[in-house]
From TrEMBL:
InterPro entries associated with the record: Aminotransferase_I/II_large, AspAT/PAT-like, PyrdxlP-dep_Trfase, PyrdxlP-dep_Trfase_major
Keywords per UniProt: Aminotransferase, Pyridoxal phosphate, Transferase
This protein's name: Putative aspartate aminotransferase
Cofactor: pyridoxal 5'-phosphate
EC number: 2.6.1.1
Highest taxon of source: Bacteria
Amino acid sequence: MKLARRIQEVAPFYVMDVVRAAREQEAQWQRQGRNMIHLSVGEPDFSAPEPVVQAGIAALREGRSGYTLAPGLPALREAIAAHYQAKHGVPVDPRRVFITAGASGALTLACLLLVEPGDEVLMPDPTYPCNKNFVAAAGGIPRLLPTTAATRFQPTAAQIDAAWGPATRGVLLASPSNPTGTSIAPDELARIAAVVRKRGGFLLVDEIYLELGFDPAYGRTALALDDTVISINSFSKYFQMTGWRLGWMVVPEDLVEPLTRLAGNLYICPSSPAQHAALACFAPETLAEAERRRAEFARRRDVIVPALEVLGLDVPVLPDGAFYVWVDCSRYSRDSWDFCFDVMRETGVVLVPGKDFATIQPERWFRLSYANSVENLREAADRLGAYLRPRERQADPARRAMADEPLA
């Protein structure tokens, strides 16, 4: 059967190759009484807070499972708007809040709404791989801007301004970022927004990890800049509702009507039981639990990052949010793909090679997700240490030379 040409522009999601291989190995290891430690997929190891679960059960029992309006439950849109005011001091009209089928649904809708075939959308390298594919699926061209540790693996306003060309339509950023866990400083984000306004483009900011921030220097929503920014968010990360597939976006007022029309035609509405459950996310007891879990993620970061550095696995930028570490393994290997698969086979520690996220020196990097217990993180560090000790870079001059190259 002949496929649409756009599918040729959608790259594979290589992390799933890792997941499949890990599942196959895990079945063998379990028969041997051995366990694997999964530090790969970006999914919290916490489930949805109990008030959310109970609200979802109640919605189903009471028959609140019919269609909603395409933009979502009015009460949930109002609760999200109130959260922006209470948490960030940013007033948001509930009309501008649009409930979606996860953040992925929001990004898909945004790209279909704003990107014409042939339009370029600027984004950082490294980046979450699906962000490229949302643009490509709309017929656009993702244009990756190389970043370095010096800019926290985030693009700068000057870089975006210089890269803007006749085909550029807008910018897609993530703060904090997957895979690096790093944010854009508020002043720099304001400068980026000014460049985009000057150029007449759009600014999409993926903020699904915004509430999982650990550094008060960051954590300011892009909606504080002006009413033209489009913010994408999700119930999956901070509220740990991953499989419920519920997200939201906040859009400029003039996008509300066309977005309603597009979403109503493409998927009618988001899951109504999930929306009723999500209302409980903003109850005081749920927010208190979410904050406790955020502190636990910070504790895990502070366990695993020093452990990696002791092992000679360099972390050039301390992540300030999310639950990822972007790690340089060039001291031990010329190819992070081979490194990660060998580590998995030998130690049972599952990591993700840089191939999914970066086009600049992807063989140098891997991503570690610390959405796992402190005990498992310590055990993973011990296993990595036992694996790496016989492979010290002094035994291989070629690897030593690679590790001494400038960081991308």
